Amino acid sequence: MDIRKWSDKYSIDCRLKYNSMATRDNYISQVKSFLAYFINEVEPKAIPTEKIKLWLLEAQTINTRKHRLCAIKSFYDITVGMPVKLDKIPYPKKEKKLPIVLSQHEIQKMFDACENLKHKTILALLYSCGLRVSELLNLKWQHIDRSRMIINIIQAKGKKDRQVMLPAELIPVLEQYCRKYKLESSEYVLTGQNNTPQYSERSVGETVKQLASKAGINKRVYTHLIRHCTFTHMVEAGVDINLIQKLAGHSNVKTTNIYTHISHNVISKIPSPLQQINL
Q1: Active site members
Q2: FRET partner for 172 with CA separation of 20 to 30 A, picked from 58, 81, 102, 117?
Q3: pTM (2 decimals)?
Q4: CA distances from 44 to 47, 85, 116, 235 (A)
C-alpha cells in the first residue's frame, strides 16, 4: 500500500472538512498508524472489516479506541469514498471520569506561591473566567473591553465567539504585567520568549504544574483543571447554571436561545471567583 499517497490525500480532505487543528492532527495521526498497520494490504478498501475490528481492540483505553474509530470512519467517508464500510462497528461508551478539582483554598495557595508576575497573570486569566488554554494563548489586548468590563473570546472552540466577565480585581494585575514587560505595542497578552508573538501551550502547562508543586498540592494539576475549578466554584457560589454554560461556551440545543439573549451588561455583573482571591 502507498501510505504516503493515502495520508497526503486524507490530510488535504481534513483541511477542507475540519476547522479544528487539534481534530485534524489527531485524525491524521490515527490514520497514518492505521495505514502503517495494514501496509501489506493492496489498498484501504481491501482491508477486511473484521481485521479493522481487531486493530481497534488493540487500543489500550476506551477513549483511544473511540478516537481511532472516529478517524478511520472519517477516512473511509471523505477520502476512500466508502462511508458505510464501518457503519456496523459501534462506538464504545465514553469513559466518564470526573475531574478532581481544587478548593478555593488550594487555588489561593497557588497564587501565594507565585513570585513571577507573568505566571500570576496566566493563573489569574485562567481562573477568573474559565478560559481554555487556546483562548488564553489567542487573547489579544484589543479583546479586553474595560468600558463594558468584559473579555471578548474570538473564534474559540467550534469557531464561536463569546463574552466573559472582566473582574475588577484582574485589571491592576494586567496593568502591572503590561508595564513590567513593556507590552504596550504587543498584539497578544501573552508573548513568548525573545518577544515572539505568542506564548506556547507547553509553557502554560509547565507554569500551572510548577505553581501547584510550590503550593504543596498533591493532586494532579493541569491547565484545563483550572477551568473546571472556575465553574465548580461558581456553582458553589450560587451562579445560575445557564449563565455558567454561556460563559463556558458549551453547546446545548435546549438552552442555546437563553445564552444568546443574555446581554453584555448582565455578563459584566456576574461575580467572578477571582474576587475571593488576594492578588
Answers
A1: 132, 157, 224, 227, 250, 259
A2: 102
A3: 0.71
A4: 6, 11, 53, 49
